[in-house]
């Protein structure tokens, strides 16, 4: 299940603990008013469960955490950013379940 981020400190904590556990973090930057974000949300949840052994999935509401959106240059949603050891290793934008599945698989197996 994807973890909803409530503060930048919590986001940093997830990055830190994921590095220690040798896991990738996939940050789903979304907004409640974003229709494509709502459409892909069930796929995000399904993949979060499927890949929980190698990827920590977090959801970042850009309306509540604009500082994180700015830091990662998020200006379109949904944006999916993969981070390893705190560094961006992959990213893509849009409601494309096939592309999301492929990115999850790629980032799990290159971990």
From TrEMBL:
Thioredoxin domain sequence ranges: 1-109
Keywords linked to the UniProt accession: Disulfide bond, Redox-active center
Active site, renumbered: 34 (nucleophile), 37 (nucleophile)
GO MF term list: protein-disulfide reductase activity
Cysteine pairings via disulfide bonds: 34-37
Residues with site note (Contributes to redox potential value): 35-36
CDD domains given in the database record: TRX_family
InterPro entries named in the record: Thioredoxin (IPR005746), Thioredoxin-like_sf (IPR036249), Thioredoxin_domain (IPR013766)
Family membership noted in the UniProt record: Belongs to the thioredoxin family.
Protein's recorded name: Thioredoxin
Upper classification of the organism: Eukaryota, Discoba, Heterolobosea, Tetramitia, Eutetramitia
């Amino acid at each position: 299940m994807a973890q909803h981020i409530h503060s930048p400190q919590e986001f940093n904590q997830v990055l830190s603990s994921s590095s220690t556990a040798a896991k990738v973090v996939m940050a789903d930057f979304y907004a409640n008013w974003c229709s494509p974000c709502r459409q892909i949300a069930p796929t995000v949840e399904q993949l979060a469960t499927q890949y929980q052994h190698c990827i920590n999935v977090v959801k970042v509401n850009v309306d509540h955490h604009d500082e994180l959106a700015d830091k990662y240059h998020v200006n379109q949603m949904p944006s999916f950013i993969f981070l390893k050891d705190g560094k961006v290793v992959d990213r893509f934008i849009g409601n494309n379940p096939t592309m999301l599945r492929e990115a999850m698989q790629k980032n799990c197996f290159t971990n």
